[in-house]
Amino acid sequence: MIEYEEAGGAVVRCLESEIAGRRIAAHAVPYSGEVGLQSFRFDPLERRLFERRRSGRVRVGPPDPVEWARAFSRCPAGPVLVGPGDPAEGVRGAYRAAAEGAAQSGRAVYVLDPEPSALPPTPPDAFVALFAWTPLGEGWATALAAAIARGTSGGALLPIVPGWTDEPDFLGGWFDRLKAAGAEFAAAVPASGEGESRRSLVEARTRIDPAAADGFFEKIHHCDWTASVREGVVRFRAEAAHRGLATLPPRPVGSGEPPGNSAAAAR
């Protein structure tokens, strides 16, 4: 059972970071808590896989864009990230409020894993939708196609995991789904090699393909992680180039930014 409770305010973390090679000045969290029907979630900020509980509490931000705009006003200037989304968005409306509040405050906005109902209709140039691959879930492709159909720039993020997502067969299938969804870009995110991250990766691979679990365990615990990830990124970029896809998300344009500054930042 999943319980939703009010967060008590707009949760915005004013901490400069990067996502898929793009700088962000703040991160808005409309829904917090690793709980959901999808067993795993890849976080492209922390670059690791999180295992989700099937029951628990999810804290929900306010459905008022003004509160989110006020929270963003306390953060340094620059693009912001909103997300990830939640299946309850159609009832709660916190994600759309956060995205609208960010745009109303003049920000350029990256929206991470939004439900189709969470995307504000305007201004389209202010938003770029990012959809992260997750094991045991293909909903990202449907949501990406919906975002593209609404006129929002969108693409997907793939964690590069040695012995799994860097394999030619895997990459070929993933890029096929990406192109079918109408993606404009594909970005590689080097997966973290920290111990907890590797544990979650082994757990996820075991559930998907038990026969490959032993070989995968040996690979990620005994390979040169940095070198293997680097080789995987090279293969990823070659595949993207073959299919005519950019490997860096476009930069959205905030209404409060000087156009020249936005163009320079994009370059």
Percent of residues in helices comes to 25-40%
Rounded mean pLDDT score = 92
Proportion of residues in β-strands = 15-25%
Low-pLDDT runs of 5+ residues are none
How many strand elements?
A: 14
End-to-end Cα distance, whole Å, is 46 Å
* Helix run count: 9
Read across the widest sheet, the strand sequence of neighbours is 2-5-10-11-12-13-14
What global shape is seen? globular
Give me the strand/helix succession: EEEEEEEEEHEHHEEHEHEHHHH
Structural class comes to alpha/beta
> Rg from C-alpha positions?
18 Å
Biggest sheet: strands, sense, closure? Answer: 7 strands, mixed
Give an overview of the whole structure.
It contains 9 helices and 14 strands. With 267 residues, the chain is of the alpha/beta class. The strands form 4 sheets. Strands 2-5-10-11-12-13-14 form a 7-stranded mixed beta sheet. A 3-stranded mixed beta sheet has the order 1-9-6, with no helix packed on it. The protein is globular, with a radius of gyration of 18 Å. The mean pLDDT is 92.
Question: How would you summarize what this structure contains?
Answer:
Helices cover 36% and strands 22% of the residues. The protein has helices at 65-72, 89-92, 94-104, 139-149, 168-180, 195-208, 213-222, 225-242, 259-266; strands at residues 2-6, 12-13, 17-19, 22-24, 26-28, 31-32, 40-43, 48-51, 56-60, 80-82, 109-112, 127-132, 153-160, 185-190. A seven-stranded mixed β-sheet has the order 2-5-10-11-12-13-14.
